[in-house]
Amino acid sequence: MPMENITFKATTAENSYNISYELNGGVDPGNPTVYTKDDEITLKNPTKTGYKFLGWTTTEQVEPQNPMVIHRGTIGDLMLFAEWEAEVYTIAYNLNGGAFSYEHPTEYTIETNDIFVENPTKEGYIFLGWTGTELVGNIKDLVITKGSCGNRAYTANFAADDEIPYTVYHWTQNLDGDDTKKDSENYSLAYTDSLTGTTGANLNPSVKDIVGFTSPSTQTIVIKEDGSSELNYYYER
Q: Which of 16, 49, 127, 171 has the highest count of CB atoms within 10 angstroms of its CB?
């Protein structure tokens, strides 16, 4: 040892600790990976498509914390786990007077299995297809596939059926029939015309020229979607 007085100065280095994250499929928001006991850190929330962030948990703390704050004075390495819950989205159907044959779901999540949407029916109309969320043109085979996200709205589109049946009856007056009483006792059925038209259309079916009888004026018939429309023409002697 030297023959002189010696002075020693103690120095310390501030300990730093590691922060590890298990994002469970989320996207790293850029949170710090180290800290010291003098730091006060509020962590950013990660994101995950189709999920709502519930908060961070640790091996000791099972209740998610959001926001998560690492308070000044904390020491030791930390392992944080991101906790998620699937977002619930809505499905709206505008059936435009049509109907499903069974009940369809109005909610779904990114984890829901494929949803096959039935083509609705509407009496007297032809289904053209669905329009709405993420669709281009009219789509008949609509499927909401597993992994989809976001609220959805779909509209059913129909066109009037132009092959709806209707019937025109032509009655001729009996020899002793009363022309003021339009019934089967005073008139006999001479012809039956089975025709077709478009749902909701107003038509004026033509009358016939029957020898010995006066043709009536044409009348208007409205084509009902159920094919039950009928019209009677009565021909007087």
A: 171
